[in-house]
Recover the amino acids of this structure.
């Protein structure tokens, strides 16, 4: 029995065959139909008028199996394009002029083609046979390439899968016949649609907003709809600003889409988009413990104040205006950082982090052996326990001094030379051995280690050279300015606050008072000091009895610094928060989501949402809060009443039945979007596509020619997708900040970011405008919660403005007539 592949399905314990034999599959001749090719060419020679019909079926000469037939077909098409008569004489002369007549077999071969025609009127039937065989050959070639790459490529598996899917879809795209439509057929279909929609005021898909549906006639199949608004991110920092990642800080300018970044709560987060903002004025935001961060005026901060019920997200400009008023000075604080980031390296596992901290605080890291000083028996006992794991011992060296050495000495019986001290070796690798007290520092490996390791390191420092005040604050003194800075960085990395003061020291020698080395006293506070695993009993007890009040990171000043190239990023974390310089937490579409929710939940229309900015969990939570009328802040903080739980339970049941499909692939490409949308159309018959948002997509092949050309390619591709799937595609798009400088702040189509082709390709352009947005933090301004949907372009309808109500706590847009009914969602 012959098989296409040969696999070993024998005993499971038998060694697997390293090679899969696939040779017989490729020994077969590729699919072809020589007779159909000859009949097609003969029919074209006899009746040149059918060349145009055949060109609707075949994509080119490459569809022919024999090169001679491809050359003849190419010459026939050239004659047809030049409006010359297509016959035997003209074809013979054309091939002779191209010096290809002998290659195709001469005049005798052309005459044989004419003789091979059974029916000259069957040209299109023969063309379909030729096309089908060509598709099979392309499919075999593509699958062969995929098979080869699966065995030999080192690329990530999902990149291979995406490329394989794309290649298959490219073949599928070439199988159709692009026949022009008769006007009579089109008019008949139009009247059938009118009869079907008889009595309906809206012929497209209803959005749930009455006035908007009346003006646009709903979302129409095949249209590209742009919903544009001011960027929700709004953040920009200098390229040399630092952003925290699991491996430590990296410059903002070095970040790429897909890179991991640290988050406010330790949950996974990645860069979803990178957006250069050009040269801009930046400001230094100074916090109460001395740390600071640079950003532009539009950068977003999540801040709180004791006058507010919940945190607010404000721009740097808003904060500057707040700080001009006395009641807000030193009373607005930024979000705290959990400190949950970092990874332990392999070399750190051999030495306990608490021991490293102890040696940095009161150890001697030079001379013939590792030494430390301590008057605490508990500390000496802990050191003894830790070094025994390294085959070392703690030996008294007089008074409170101890030496960490090898029990039997550095010599080994039968082995020449000195056996190195493993602790000393590790200290040497970290660059610590040989450092005197003024030169000590914390190695970067420990500053970027896991939360637990950093906490142990700080405990070792406090157990050796630190103390605990009666109110629970931590102090540490050192003569090393670098170590003082590192301790501050270490404390801030744990979510605490830290500052230092420089003190003069004196000593008396030979009866004279002299100036000593300066001392640096670090003042440290942790969110929960009880988590610090101290060994000294009296320090631990004092820490446990201290106050639990956490020091807030109040904003004390915002000052202009420089004009510099800036960049903003989008992150995948649900809060859109990331961590910048000195462990400072900083910030990172509701209208389209409301429409998608209405289509799926109310009308049971299958909808696909591609969310490139928010995670699918966050999007689902936003829909749940929006539809139930429950404040999203209550859900995030888990402060729900019994009534809130009841509303959420009912809404979960309703939304669970909605045909709504969410994809939150970060860094989605145009190619990936088309492949996913086609698959959803085939599996779920989706009737509308939403993309949040357009500028977060990429088209790598077009990106080589600049970002503007890339966005143009994305815009054209999305429009083509709408026509191909015959569904409305609604895209969120960013507006630039020109409206902020304009009186009235009303957006225009020229404010669309990065490419004018969006304006050209779109069928409908809606722009959201909320005047309240530009008066955040202004207590003299009375919010009216009015949002305007400005229809700047509609290819097949009027332009104008629709007013809606915006409910901030649930991020929901509502019809003005039903704003009192939160549960009904204003539909």
């Amino acid at each position: 029995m012959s098989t296409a592949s040969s696999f070993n399905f024998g005993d499971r314990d038998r060694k697997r065959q390293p090679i899969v034999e696939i040779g017989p599959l490729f020994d077969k001749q590729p699919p072809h139909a020589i007779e159909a090719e000859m009949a097609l060419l003969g029919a074209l020679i006899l009746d040149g008028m059918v060349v145009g019909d055949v060109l609707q079926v075949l994509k080119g000469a490459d569809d022919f199996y024999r090169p001679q037939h491809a050359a003849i077909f190419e010459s026939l098409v050239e004659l047809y394009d030049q409006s010359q008569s297509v016959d035997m004489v003209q074809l013979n002369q054309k091939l002779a002029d191209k010096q290809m007549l002998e290659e195709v077999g001469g005049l005798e071969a052309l005459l044989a083609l004419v003789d091979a025609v059974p029916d000259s009127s069957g040209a299109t039937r023969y063309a379909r046979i030729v096309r089908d065989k060509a598709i099979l050959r392309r499919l075999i070639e593509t699958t062969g390439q995929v098979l080869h790459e699966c065995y030999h490529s080192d690329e990530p598996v999902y990149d291979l899968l995406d490329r394989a899917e794309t290649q298959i879809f490219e073949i599928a795209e070439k199988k159709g016949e692009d026949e022009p439509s008769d006007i009579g057929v089109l008019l008949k279909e139009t009247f059938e649609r009118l009869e079907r929609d008889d009595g309906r005021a809206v012929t497209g898909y209803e959005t749930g907003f009455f006035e908007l549906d009346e003006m646009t006639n709903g979302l129409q199949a095949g249209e590209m709809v742009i919903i544009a608004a001011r960027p929700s991110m709004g953040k920009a920092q200098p390229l040399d600003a630092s952003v925290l990642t699991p491996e430590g800080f990296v410059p903002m300018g070095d970040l790429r889409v897909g890179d991991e970044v640290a988050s406010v709560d330790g949950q996974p987060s990645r860069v979803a988009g990178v957006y250069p903002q050009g040269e801009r004025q930046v400001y230094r935001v100074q916090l109460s413990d001395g740390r600071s961060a640079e950003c532009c005026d539009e950068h977003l901060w999540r801040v709180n104040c004791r006058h507010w019920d919940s945190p607010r997200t404000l721009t740097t400009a808003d904060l500057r205006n707040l700080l001009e008023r006395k009641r807000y000075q030193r009373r607005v604080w930024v979000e705290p950082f959990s400190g949950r980031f970092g990874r332990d390296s392999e070399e750190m596992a051999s030495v306990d982090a608490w021991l490293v901290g102890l040696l940095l605080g009161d150890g001697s890291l030079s001379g013939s052996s590792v030494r430390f000083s301590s008057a605490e028996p508990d500390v000496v006992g802990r050191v003894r326990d830790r070094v025994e794991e390294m085959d070392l011992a703690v030996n008294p060296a007089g008074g409170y001094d101890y030496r960490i050495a090898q029990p039997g000495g550095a010599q080994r019986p039968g082995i020449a030379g000195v056996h190195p001290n493993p602790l000393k070796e590790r200290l040497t690798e970290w660059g610590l051995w040989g450092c005197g007290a003024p030169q000590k520092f914390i190695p970067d490996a420990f500053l970027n280690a896991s939360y637990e390791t950093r906490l142990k390191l700080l405990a070792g420092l406090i157990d050796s050279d630190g103390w605990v005040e009666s109110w629970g604050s931590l102090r540490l003194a050192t003569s090393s300015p670098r170590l003082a800075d590192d301790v501050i960085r270490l404390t801030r990395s744990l979510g605490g606050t830290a500052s230092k003061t420089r003190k003069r020291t004196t000593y008396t020698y030979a009866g004279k008072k002299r100036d000593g080395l300066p001392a640096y006293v670090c003042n440290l506070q942790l969110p929960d000091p009880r988590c610090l695993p101290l060994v000294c009993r009296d320090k631990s007890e004092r820490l446990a009895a201290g106050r639990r009040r956490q020091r807030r990171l109040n904003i004390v000043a915002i000052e202009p610094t420089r004009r510099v190239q800036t960049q903003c990023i989008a992150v995948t974390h649900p809060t859109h928060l990331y961590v910048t310089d000195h462990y400072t937490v900083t910030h990172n579409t509701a209208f389209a989501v409301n429409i998608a929710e209405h289509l799926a939940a109310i009308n049971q229309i299958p909808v696909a949402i591609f969310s490139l900015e928010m995670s699918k969990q966050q999007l689902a939570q936003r829909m749940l809060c929006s539809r139930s009328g429950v404040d999203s802040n209550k859900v995030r903080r888990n402060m729900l009443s019994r009534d809130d739980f009841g509303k959420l339970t009912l809404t979960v049941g309703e939304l669970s039945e909605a045909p709504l499909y969410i994809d939150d692939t970060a860094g989605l490409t145009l190619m990936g979007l088309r492949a996913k949308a086609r698959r959803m159309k085939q599996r779920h018959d989706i009737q509308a596509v939403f993309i949040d948002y357009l500028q977060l997509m990429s088209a790598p092949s077009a990106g080589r020619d600049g970002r503007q050309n890339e966005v143009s390619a994305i815009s054209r591709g999305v429009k083509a997708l709408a026509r191909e799937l015959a569904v409305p595609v609604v895209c969120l798009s960013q507006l630039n900040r020109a409206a902020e400088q304009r009186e009235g702040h009303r957006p225009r189509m020229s404010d669309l970011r990065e490419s004018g082709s969006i304006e050209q390709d779109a069928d409908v352009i809606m722009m959201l405008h909320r005047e309240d947005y530009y008066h955040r933090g202004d207590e003299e301004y009375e919010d009216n919660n009015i949002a305007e949907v400005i229809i700047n372009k509609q290819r097949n309808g009027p332009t104008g403005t629709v007013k809606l109500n915006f409910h901030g706590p649930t991020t929901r847009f509502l019809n003005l007539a039903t704003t009192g009914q939160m549960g009904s969602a204003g539909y």
Q: What stands out?
A: Confidence is low (pLDDT under 50) at residues 1-26, 817-827. The longest strand covers residues 271-287.
